[in-house]
Structures are given as C-alpha cells and as structure tokens.
C-alpha cells in the first residue's frame, strides 16, 4: 500500500470515529418517548400507589373500586355499605386521596351546580363531631358573624349520624374567596371503619333542590 493511500484510510477512519462520538445520544427511558404511555394510565398508577398505602393501613382496602365509575347511577357501594343515589347526579373521577366519590349536582334554572362528596377518615385525634362543626361554621359568615349551625342526630342502620346544615356567605377553606347565598349539608356517619362524611356544598337554591335526594342517600345507607 502506498503512503498516500495509507494516509487516506487513516483519515477516513478517524472521521468516522469523530462523527459517532459527536452524535446526540438517545433520550433516557421515561422522558419524551415514554411520556404518552405514562400519561395514558394516570388512574391505574394512582390506584397502585394508593393501594400500597392501603396495604399498610388497611382502611382503604376498596380503593380500586372507588376509582371506578359506579355501574349503576342509582346506587353506590363504599366501605362495605351501599346507598341509593340520584341518577341525575354527574359522577366525576376522584381527585383527592380521602374522597371516595364525587358528584356534580345539576342546578335549577338560574343557579349554579353544587358538589357532593363522600369522604372517609380513619379515626384520628381531633377528628371529633364538635371540632368538625366548628371548622365548617368558620367557613361561613352571616351578616357579621358565623351563622348558627342546625344540628340533627339520626340513627341509620345502627350507626350514629350527625346532620349539620349551614347557610350564608361561604368563605372557602382559607377565606380567600367568597360565595354569597351558599349552603352546606353534611352527614357525619360513625361507621365501624371510621368517620364517613357525606357533604353537599353549593348555591342554596341548588342544595335545596337536591335536599330530598341527599337525605335519601343518607337514610338509605345499608350494609352490603
């Protein structure tokens, strides 16, 4: 091989080597290429993560069922219990860990929708009936002071139930925004698996229109 040909071979080999080193490496796993797959299954991933928490605590063993839309819009199952629901309520996916189910309550003409939530709390220090009533009362304002809550005691399927009703200007959890002429209905159910809160919150006209359906849910709770 002549000297010039030998130098040409060496030059081409060196150029090829430099080109491969300067090439952009493929994206690492879990970045751009995997985004669509991870976003396509948020409910599954959330259920798996919360199910792992439940395995240690045991108080949310039916989590996967709660993440799924009820098969029958006239009935709901939760924590070994069942209750009737109004088929006009619009179920929506759970967005917060302690919520078991959430519905949007359609509004009568001229009003805005309300929200109905079914929440489960395992027993914990400070989670008392009086403490919750004080907290909810502090979220409302009457003319100048918090309104007086209307409290009623029931027994449903051998479980004590405290019904709380508040009306006035709703201040929100932190008081950062105000909603005039709002109402809240909360049923606190003392079950064998902790406290169950069934809460309807929204414009007073919407809450009043759905009061009978709310009470049918509460008074219709039965063991499975």
What does this structure look like?
The chain is an alpha+beta fold and 224 residues long. It has one domain (61-223): Mog1/PsbP, alpha/beta/alpha sandwich (Protein Transport Mog1p, Chain A, 3-Layer(aba) Sandwich). It contains seven helices and eleven strands. The protein has helices at 3-22, 32-39, 42-57, 63-67, 129-137, 204-209, 211-219, and strands at residues 75-78, 81-84, 90-92, 99-105, 114-121, 140-141, 150-156, 159-170, 179-191, 194-203, 222-223. Strands 3, 4, 5, 6, 7, 8, 9 and 10 form an eight-stranded antiparallel β-sheet that branches. β1 and β2 (81-84) form a beta hairpin. It is globular and about 45 Å long. Residues 3-61 have low confidence and may be disordered.
Name the descriptors.
224 residues, single chain, 7 helices, Protein Transport Mog1p, Chain A, three-stranded antiparallel sheet, alpha+beta, globular, disordered N terminus
**Biggest sheet architecture:** 8 strands, antiparallel
Low-confidence stretches: 3-61
Termini gap: 90 Å
Q: What is the CATH-assigned architecture?
A: 3-Layer(aba) Sandwich
CATH class: Alpha Beta
What's the gyration radius in Å?
28 Å
């Amino acid at each position: 091989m002549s000297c010039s040909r030998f130098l040409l071979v060496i030059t081409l080999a060196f150029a090829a080597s430099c080109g491969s080193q300067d090439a952009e490496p493929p994206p690492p796993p879990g970045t751009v290429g995997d985004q669509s797959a991870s976003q396509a299954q948020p409910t599954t991933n959330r259920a798996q993560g919360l199910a792992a928490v439940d395995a240690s605590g045991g108080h949310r063993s039916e989590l996967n069922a709660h993440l799924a839309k009820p098969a029958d819009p006239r009935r709901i199952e939760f924590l070994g219990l069942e209750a009737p629901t109004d088929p006009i309520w619009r179920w929506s996916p759970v967005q917060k860990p302690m919520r078991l189910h959430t519905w949007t309550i359609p509004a009568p003409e001229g009003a805005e929708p309300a929200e109905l939530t079914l929440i489960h709390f395992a027993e914990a220090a400070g989670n008392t009936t009086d403490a919750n009533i004080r907290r909810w009362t502090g979220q409302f304002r009457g003319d100048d002071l918090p309104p007086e809550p209307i409290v009623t005691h029931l027994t449903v399927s051998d479980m004590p139930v405290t019904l709380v009703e508040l009306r006035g200007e709703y201040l929100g959890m932190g008081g950062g925004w105000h909603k005039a002429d709002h109402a809240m209905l909360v049923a606190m159910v003392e079950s064998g698996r902790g406290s169950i809160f069934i809460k309807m919150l929204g414009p007073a006209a919407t809450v009043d229109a759905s009061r009978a359906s709310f009470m049918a849910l509460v008074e219709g709770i039965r063991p499975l």
